[in-house]
Task: inverse folding
């Protein structure tokens, strides 16, 4: 029954078209495949292969174990399949093969073994599900953040960021290292999904429901602080879904505390910043800045609402100056990008609602603020000196 | 009432355009299904090409987000509902009556009706392109993005109404095949003697009849939400978007098996034929199909693992989903068992069948990795899932269907498909498929979500996406080779004779293409693989194997007559739907036409008195 070496060689020659050096080709192909696989597994900024916390780590462990089981099953079954296809190829003049109809003990064996295999994996994954549903009981001082999904940005509200201080921010979630963070997830409009691959698998953000998830960034797995981890909405949510990004900035406790302490409206020490603050009055029907111009903001919102203007929730800009990016993780935060974004938001992020909703600013087809105004706004919001 | 049918003379012609429009012959309807679905396959394939062109490199600006969203929505919707399902239906139509020794399906006119409704439903959904309001919310169109607030144009109405119309077609066809298989088997063909393809057709039909009402409920609710101010899914009125997901996937998971069981049946016919051995473990293959059919109802929430359903529900669906891998694996083992010890002829149908197994193994294994909920949390909605679905539906369903096309083409046309071109077609498709979809596993694990029209260079997804796009080119060449092969073979393919593969089942005992009446004398069978037994007995007795029956005068055989009414009633059905998009008056007209069609149909005898007796 064993295939003769010559026979295999004949077949390989037939496959490779005769004279070609099959072995050298096979070696080359193997090498290329291994190289490609290694390259493909290389980690990127949203790689699930590079976890920095216990949740993502356990999810990866489960996947890796599954992966190796899959690889083993793959090699075994494909190997047998390929062997059968080559070994039992029809030879000229071959008589009718033995007409077997089945084999009961084989059937029982190859039903029971996979059942045991998948059940073992299943039970382990179920244990994991319960274990990782909530932060461990040992985790004290869990940081709670409410996440709200919007088309197409994420809002973060810390009811108590530290010392009882309430903070509202967007698109950049700042968390202290080595502390469990528990998120509650809600949506203001359509379905989204909150996903920072290096910290935890995704959880959907659904209107009418409150979901939760937790994660933690471990200092031993992070080279230096502060560290940025990238996330992206993972549930199709409309025209700008691809551009709904965000970041998690992991800071040491001291940095985090100072961010909490300093959180507040931008200072208005320069004349330009004061002008910017005044101009910001045109933005407040959607954007807010805490603790500053509250009555003016409310009056302005009311005015817009009575006038039939669209009221759209937009990112709270109180701490914009402390963020790394603009426009939901699209642009690095600096003056040029800020001006570019405000001047022509549709070019930067097609589909975003700013241009569509702010008719008083963009109604004429182009922004009614001039370059000096934009400089002033940038000076104010980004606290440029 | 009889007078209605008297107004228009009963069609008598079997040829020309009217011959096709009024046909009730299951073989012709099978061809109609096949041709229509294949055209849709090419269109949806080109849509995929546009998607791959846009994603070929980072920060590409070839296609904007709006068009991109419309492309992936139409690509997937078409591939699922207008390509794979009707291609399977094409085989059901052509093969089932022949393989069970029947002269036609149980309800020939209902069969024609199913086809016309399918065609018109397809046209209705694609009419959205003509008016520039194309569906753009993905093939499972999750609520509440589908509400008029977030999708104001008519695209999703086209989508929902188109699918409702296609549902009518599917359910009618499925009922037809259930009745046909249960009632019209020739003498001696007991259930456990039926070819496995017939079994899979039966199971698929039962799944269809049970699953389509569920999505119909969802679609009707969606249409009501969008057009009549209800709030089933509209959160602003207290609706529940998760309800849509449950309705969609309670349908959607059986649907996955609706897409894969028929190709599994095809492969179960081809492997024994080209191994010259009966199917290994026939009862096990049949029962694992039945078990899959049952279990497909208990796994739907694994599509919703990330919706926050809590560890208890996750546990249930993790376990059921892992268990469904077992009967699937058992099928694969039995297929390999069939090849083991056989005398394998690697003709093109066999190549595609082996390709099916080898690719389906990959799709099945990656399926296990997201059956495990915690692992799936990282994979859900990424390109890893895109890779999985294409290994199952392209590597699985489409490869199985191509195997079937190469296998039954000689029976359908009397000509062989070119073997050399066929092999080239196979290898290009096989290579192209792997180059396109294998890298997607990695790009998904590297954090690329599905349904994004652009990505930055800094994510490191660029070269893997370029590789996928390159794979598309290879795949494209493979498909081009198939089309050329098809045209060449139709024109001057080698005559096949009635039994080119030395096949075991009844359809090969009659001439190619089969006569209108299929069997002049209804066969009587004594076991599985009846034609195989006949041939081997003759050989053992040293007698020549009897050829196909000599043609007989068709007028001596009781056959259903052609009819205008199925196509007529189908026009009514699609007008009802079209009216909801334009003017309700049109719906009324459509309703009247459908009613008239049904009345005319029911008053018309199946066989016209003046034609065959």
Result:
């Amino acid at each position: 029954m064993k295939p003769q070496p010559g026979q295999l060689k004949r077949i390989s020659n037939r496959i490779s078209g005769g004279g070609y050096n099959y072995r050298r080709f096979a070696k080359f192909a193997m090498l290329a495949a291994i190289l490609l696989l290694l390259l493909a597994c290389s980690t990127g900024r949203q790689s699930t292969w590079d976890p920095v916390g216990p949740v993502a780590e356990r999810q990866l462990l489960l996947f890796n174990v599954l992966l190796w089981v899959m690889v083993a099953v793959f090699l075994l079954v494909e190997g047998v399949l390929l062997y059968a296809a080559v070994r039992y190829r029809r030879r000229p003049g071959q008589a009718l093969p033995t007409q077997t109809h089945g084999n009961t003990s084989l059937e029982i064996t190859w039903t029971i073994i996979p059942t045991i295999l998948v059940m073992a994996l299943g039970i382990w994954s179920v244990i994991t599900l319960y274990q990782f549903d909530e932060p461990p009981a040992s985790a004290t001082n869990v940081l709670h953040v409410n996440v709200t999904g919007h088309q197409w940005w994420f809002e973060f509200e810390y009811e108590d960021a530290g010392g009882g201080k309430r903070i509202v921010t967007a698109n950049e979630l700042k968390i202290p290292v080595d502390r469990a963070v528990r998120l509650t997830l809600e949506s203001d409009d359509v379905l989204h999904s909150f996903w920072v691959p290096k910290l935890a698998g995704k959880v959907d953000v659904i209107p009418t429901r409150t979901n939760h998830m937790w994660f933690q960034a471990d200092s031993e797995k992070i080279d230096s602080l502060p560290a940025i981890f990238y996330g992206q909405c993972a549930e199709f949510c409309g025209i700008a879904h691809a551009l709904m990004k965000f970041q998690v900035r992991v800071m040491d406790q001291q940095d985090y505390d100072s961010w909490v302490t300093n959180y507040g409206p931008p200072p208005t020490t320069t004349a330009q910043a004061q002008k910017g603050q005044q101009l910001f009055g045109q933005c407040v029907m959607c954007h807010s800045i805490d603790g500053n111009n509250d009555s003016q903001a409310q009056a302005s919102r009311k005015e817009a609402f009575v006038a039939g203007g669209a009221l759209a929730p937009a990112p709270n800009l109180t701490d914009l100056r402390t963020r790394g990016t603009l426009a939901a993780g699209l642009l690095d935060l600096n003056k040029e990008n800020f001006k570019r974004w405000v001047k022509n938001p549709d070019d930067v992020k097609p589909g975003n609602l700013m241009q569509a909703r702010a008719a008083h600013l963009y109604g004429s087809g182009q922004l009614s603020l001039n370059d000096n105004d934009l400089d002033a706004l940038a000076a104010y919001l980004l606290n440029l000196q | 009432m009889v007078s209605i049918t008297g107004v228009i003379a009963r069609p008598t012609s079997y040829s020309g355009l009217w011959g096709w429009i009024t046909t009730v012959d299951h073989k012709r309807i099978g061809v109609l299904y096949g041709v229509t679905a294949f055209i849709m396959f090419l269109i949806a394939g080109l849509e995929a090409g546009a998607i791959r062109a846009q994603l070929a490199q980072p920060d590409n600006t070839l296609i904007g987000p709006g068009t991109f969203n419309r492309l992936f929505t139409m690509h997937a919707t078409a591939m699922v509902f207008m390509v794979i399902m009707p291609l399977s239906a094409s085989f059901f139509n052509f093969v089932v009556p022949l393989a069970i020794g029947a002269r036609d399906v149980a309800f020939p006119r209902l069969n024609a009706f199913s086809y016309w409704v399918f065609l018109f439903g397809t046209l209705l959904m694609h009419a959205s392109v003509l008016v520039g309001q194309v569906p753009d919310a993905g093939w499972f169109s999750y609520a509440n993005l589908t509400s008029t607030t977030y999708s104001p144009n008519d695209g999703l109405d086209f989508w929902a109404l188109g699918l409702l119309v296609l549902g009518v077609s599917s359910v009618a066809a499925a009922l037809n095949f259930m009745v046909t298989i249960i009632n019209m088997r020739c003498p001696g063909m007991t259930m456990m003697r039926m070819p496995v393809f017939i079994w899979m057709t039966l199971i698929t039909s039962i799944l269809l009849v049970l699953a389509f009402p569920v999505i119909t409920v969802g679609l009707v609710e969606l249409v009501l939400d969008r057009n009549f101010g209800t709030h089933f899914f509209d959160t602003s009125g207290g609706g529940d978007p998760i309800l849509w997901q449950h309705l969609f996937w309670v349908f959607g998971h059986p649907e996955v098996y609706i897409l894969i069981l028929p190709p599994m049946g095809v492969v179960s016919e081809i492997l024994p034929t080209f191994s010259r051995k009966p199917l290994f473990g026939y009862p096990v293959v049949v029962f694992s199909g039945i078990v899959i059919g049952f279990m497909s109802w208990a796994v739907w929430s694994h599509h919703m693992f990330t919706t926050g359903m809590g560890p208890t529900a996750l546990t249930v669906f993790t376990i059921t989903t892992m268990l469904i891998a077992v009967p699937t694996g058992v099928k694969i083992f039995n297929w390999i068992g069939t090849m083991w010890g056989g005398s394998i002829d690697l003709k093109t149908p066999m190549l595609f069948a082996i390709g099916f197994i080898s690719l389906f193994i990959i799709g099945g294994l990656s399926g296990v990795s997201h059956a495990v909920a915690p692992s799936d949390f990282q994979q859900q909605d990424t390109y890893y899932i895109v890779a999985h679905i294409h290994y199952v539906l392209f590597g699985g369903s489409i490869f199985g269907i191509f195997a079937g096309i190469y296998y039954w083409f000689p029976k359908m046309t009397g000509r062989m498909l070119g073997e050399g071109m066929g092999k080239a077609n196979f290898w290009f498709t096989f290579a192209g498929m792997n180059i396109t979809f294998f890298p997607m596993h990695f790009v998904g694990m590297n954090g690329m979500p599905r349904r994004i029209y652009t990505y930055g260079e800094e994510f490191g997804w660029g070269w893997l996406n370029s590789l996928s796009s390159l794979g598309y080119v290879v795949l494209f060449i493979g498909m081009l080779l198939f089309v050329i092969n098809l045209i060449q073979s139709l024109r001057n393919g080698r005559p096949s004779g009635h039994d080119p593969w030395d096949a075991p089942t009844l359809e090969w005992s009659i001439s190619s293409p089969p006569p209108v009446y299929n069997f002049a004398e209804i066969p009587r069978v004594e076991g599985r693989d009846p034609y195989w037994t006949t041939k081997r007995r003759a050989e053992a007795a040293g007698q020549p194997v009897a050829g196909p029956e000599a043609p007989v005068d068709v007028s001596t055989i009781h056959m259903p007559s052609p009819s205008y009414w199925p196509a007529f009633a189908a026009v009514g059905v699609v007008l009802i739907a079209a009216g909801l998009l334009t003017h309700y008056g049109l719906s009324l007209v459509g309703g009247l036409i459908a009613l008239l069609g049904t009345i005319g149909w029911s008053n018309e005898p199946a066989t016209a008195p003046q034609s065959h007796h």
Residues 54-87 of chain A form the longest helix (34 residues). Chain A has twelve helices and twelve strands. The two ends of chain A are 85 Å apart (CA to CA). Chain A has a mean pLDDT of 87.
